[in-house]
Amino acid sequence: MRGPAVVVRCRDASSPWLREIRAGMEEEGVPLVVEEVSAGDALVLAYAAACRSTLDVGIGVADEVCVHHAKRPAGSPALTGPLSRARVLGHNAARMVVGIPLK
Question: Which CATH architecture is the domain 6-98 placed in?
Answer without folding.
Answer: 3-Layer(aba) Sandwich (3.40)
